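Ticket #400: bound-state structure for zinc ion.
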Amino acid sequence: MSSSSNCTEHEAVTNFREYLRIPSVHPDVDYSKCVEFLLRQAQSLGLPSNIYYIVPGKPIIIITWIGQKPDLPSILLNSHMDVVPVYPEKWTYEPFSAHKDDDGNIYARGAQDMKCVGIQYLETIRKYLRDKLVFNRTIHVSFVPDEEIGGTFGMKKFVKTPEFSALNIGFALDEGLASPDDSYALYYGERTLWQTVIKCTGTPGHGSLLHENTAGEKLRFIIDKFMNWRECEKLRLKNGNLGPGDITSINLTILEGGCQINVVPPELTVCFDVRLAIEVDPNVMESIIQQWCREAGEGVTLEFKEKNARIQPTKLNDENPYWIAFKDQCDKMNINLKTSIFPGATDSRYIREIGIPAIGFSPMNNTPILLHDHNEFLNEKIFLKGLDIYYNLIKSLASV
Ligand code: ZN
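RESOLUTION: The complex was predicted; output attached.
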């Protein structure tokens, strides 16, 4: 038996479940059903919408509620439409069925990351319109593609267009993470992503001889340096009062080289996924790694597959009036906010990169963190409580 009868269900929950049933899943996402659904939502709100196809097949949808003082910088409420793949056999319920169990848990890929937030933005505006509220600032609700694969054809490109500039955004809300306890997680910055590729070349030859200057010896030197660095960061995480976003993470992710077990190879390659903590100067770190490469021996080179620039975190102080408004409302609602640096990467980085303050916040407390995991779910009570939270927060942000 399931309590999924629609006659008693909150309209916002019904919309949420309908959105979840659209399988906007990687790879090769078909966004057409999302577009159709979201345009219908805009229509039901009586709000204008625009679709931008900066890259074919990668729609960006903006639903706009014009404020009383449209010249003021606007508020952007951002979410992404895409979701990560699933292993259906590991799920209790079909991952695109949005099954609701007797406890009100709604199971679907995207339930936490982040179709919940997209619908909450729209349903909050629906409530304002019903309550006949008006605010000074214009609110833009954006739905973007491809966040889960780095936003290259989504937000990364969009922020550089005149269409984006024309939105005149003063402040943005984007995704955060669920919190397993009573508190709510808020993210004000992200670490600097590096994907490093280190090639070690050396003397090739027969596997029976002890050659000098081999790729293997150099590779070992490099791996030791990175792994020692990793050990230090692990200790910092263990001993300090730090979260996973506050330290630098280093992981060996790819090893390549060699063709046969009795042949000493001329080249071996090692790749590390590195996320630099915000207090680390990338230039200084790069010169340290270059120094390691020289010490390892000749023919050791550093390349970057991905080398993001350091992006200034959003200020959580008196200089940021949006933060003051946000924090005041949270205090009024007795919300225990835990502020930190996001451990992964989201589209917020592109927004911050062009100087717009952005906060990552998904109002989900008392919820296990299940993004990208099997059996991702969100309880409908938590979802509806999130609506109340946004109701107060967005009102306050649009009135700054
Ligand atoms: Zn996400």
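RESOLUTION NOTES: The pocket of zinc ion is lined by residues 80, 113-114, 147, 175 (CB under 6 Å).
TICKET STATUS: resolved
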